[in-house]
Amino acid sequence: MRLWSLDPALLDRQGLVACWREALLAQAVLLGRTAGYTAHPQLERFSAHPDPVAAISSYLHGVRDEATRRGYRFDAERIAQPLDPSTRDAGRIVVTTGQLDLERQHLLRKVAVRSPGYRPRLAPAGTPAPHPLFVAVPGDVASWERVVS
Question: What is the percentage of the chain residues whose pLDDT exceeds 70?
């Protein structure tokens, strides 16, 4: 499971679709609808949020918004909570610049194989933008990230 901290606009087509599917799985876990993945480290930051379902719903809305901009049809009915524009910024989750940089490098490796033409859009030029749910702060890779060397 990969719930990208990166702005969904940075994801290639395959990454965006996979992110949608994996976030829907994360939502099912947080709603108690599945027994699997309950201890997955990618869920720690959502589980620690005061309202985990609202957080994952906001995350899904961010992914869906990008899909809509690209002309894709991701079904908003699958999101547990409707988007409330008045509370969109409430309860944002902190993500470190180190985490964002690590995720960009991870995405670059994936894109090099599956979408080589997309790679220039991810060229290093400072810390990448986070998903709208997140607010970036200076720091190292997140403690929940499982770095494979």
Answer: 91
Provide the number of structural domains found in the chain: 1
Q: What is the pLDDT of residues 104-115, one digit of tens each?
A: 989 988 988 998
* 146 in a structural domain: no
Q: Averaged over 91-108, what is the pLDDT?
A: 92
Q: What residues make up the domain containing 100? A: 8-137
Spatial neighbors of 50 by CB under 8 A, at least 6 apart, are 91
Residue 147 lies in a domain: no
pLDDT tens, 32-73?
998 888 888 889 999 999 999 999 999 999 999 999 999 999
Q: How far apart are CA 34 and CA 1, in angstroms?
A: 14
